[in-house]
Design brief:
InterPro entries: CRISPR-assoc_prot_Crn3/Csx3 (IPR013409). This protein has two domains: 221 residues, no CATH class; 190 residues, Rossmann fold. Helix content is 31%, strand content 30%. It is built from eleven helices and 22 strands. A hairpin with a 2-residue loop joins strand 21 and strand 22. Helix 3 runs parallel beside helix 4.
């Protein structure tokens, strides 16, 4: 069942034998809404479901969809006490991962098949893939972008949060703020652990340059309240990755996310999509493991490229207050000019990485960037065939040719992407 009058879509169904309740296809109705609007809307819907008493006597809650992290915290807190087991969908492997359990037959990190609902045994593992530290009222988290085993990651997250609680680093209070790179799976685990320790829990979202209250346990703040962050970053780099369609812009963005962790603190850079094509952080690995599923989910999550989307995306980029922001845009042109939507979005950048298949394509986007007053920082020629990457710096522009650039490639094998990341990290404005 679903209700289309809301800003955040929540669909649900259940088994006849009441073994499991499923929240599915969770997603924003439109990317035009802020996380504050979305979480307030989701809270209203969850309250309605709770008041209908539809969760009674179910054993397992399964959750799937495109969840902003604050809403993951909200759902974990609001619904965990109704179910003995909570399992969250992990599209990269087409499985559900247990994030909370009071059932002896299930442990955090256990895997449930999405095809036959049977527990599965996976053999790989992660180590030191998630870091945590507490400073004042802030819990800093960092999920390395090289993690591919989300089921093992949640075990590490649970262990490290338990250590902080045991060592009185997380000892409860009026407010806990959570800041840093995380994942939906990790967020569910953390929420389960801290939600009853603190009166309010607020999650940092760079898109609003502050924290949004996601949990209320008798505190003074309500779900959806905004708490500004205290610092103001100067000399930010906001870099747009632009170029014709199907030239590898999103792959380069994903590669930079992976490699930049070698040079920058996780709190110092951030990446988003500037186009509504449905790609998420999950897409590249899912595409490598299950291309048909990746395409199916991408089609579900895709939204329309409207003028409202462009204006809201531009405002989002403007508001992000972090030393380095990287975003990509769509590759459609209006003749030989930028589309009005891309003009609005790209105008919030102060630098550009141009990606093309040849010099003519790059020259066209170079002119468009110059007309917007953007400094061209790098020009990337992409090749599908094998070859040795080349790179040099000409007139303060990083020039590179990158070979075999495709989704699922090992970015550490790409010398061009590694050198581009190093240049972006250390180049001065």
């Amino acid at each position: 069942m679903s209700n289309n009058k809301f800003k955040f879509s929540i669909n649900y169904n259940s088994n006849i034998d009441k073994s499991e309740f499923i929240l599915e296809d969770l997603k924003p109705i439109s990317d035009e809404f802020t996380v504050i609007e979305l979480i307030k809307d989701a809270k209203i819907q969850l309250d309605e479901l709770v008041n209908k008493n539809i969760f009674s006597d179910f054993e397992i809650l399964k959750i799937s969809g495109r969840l902003p992290l604050p809403i993951a915290y909200l759902i974990a807190h609001e619904l965990q006490h109704f179910f003995n087991v909570v399992a969250v969908y992990y599209p990269q492997k087409n499985i559900y991962v247990v994030t909370n359990s009071t059932n002896d037959n299930y442990q955090v990190g256990d895997v449930i098949s999405s095809e036959n609902n049977q527990k599965m045994l996976l053999t790989s593992s992660t180590k030191d893939a998630f870091s945590v530290k507490v400073s004042g009222d802030i819990l800093y988290v960092n999920c390395t972008l090289r993690v591919k085993d989300g089921n093992f990651l949640v075990k590490e997250v649970e262990e490290k949060i338990n250590q902080l609680i045991a060592n009185q680093k997380l000892k409860g209070g009026k407010l806990l703020k959570i800041n840093g790179k995380s994942s939906v799976l990790a967020s569910f685990v953390i929420a389960h652990k801290v939600c009853h320790l603190y009166a309010n829990v607020a999650i940092f979202d760079p898109k609003i340059d502050g924290y949004v209250v996601a949990l209320r346990h008798g505190g003074v703040y309500s779900v959806g309240d905004y708490l500004p962050q205290e610092n103001n970053i100067q000399n930010q780099k906001k870099i747009v990755i632009c170029g014709n369609a199907n030239r590898g812009k999103t792959v380069i963005k994903d590669g930079l996310k992976v490699i930049l962790i070698e040079y920058l603190s996780s709190e110092d850079y951030y990446s988003i999509s500037g186009c509504p094509d449905g790609d998420g952080a999950w897409y590249s690995e899912t595409c490598q493991n299950n291309p048909s599923l990746a395409r199916q989910l991408k089609d579900v999550y895709k939204v329309n490229f409207t003028p409202e989307f462009a204006r809201n995306k531009a405002l989002e980029i403007k508001n992000i207050n972090i030393p380095l922001l990287i975003f990509d845009v769509g590759g459609k042109m209006d003749g030989e000019q930028l589309t009005p939507a891309n003009q609005i979005i790209m105008a919030e950048a102060n630098g550009a990485i141009i990606v093309g298949g040849n010099e003519a394509e790059i020259a066209l986007w170079r002119r468009c960037c110059q007309e917007l007053g953007l400094r061209v920082m790098a020009e990337v020629t992409t090749k599908l065939e094998a070859g040795n990457d080349s790179f040099e710096c000409q007139n303060n522009v990083f020039i590179t040719t990158i070979h075999q650039l495709k989704r699922g490639c090992n970015f550490n094998d790409s010398e061009g992407i590694k050198q581009l990341a190093k240049y972006i990290a250390f180049e001065e404005n």
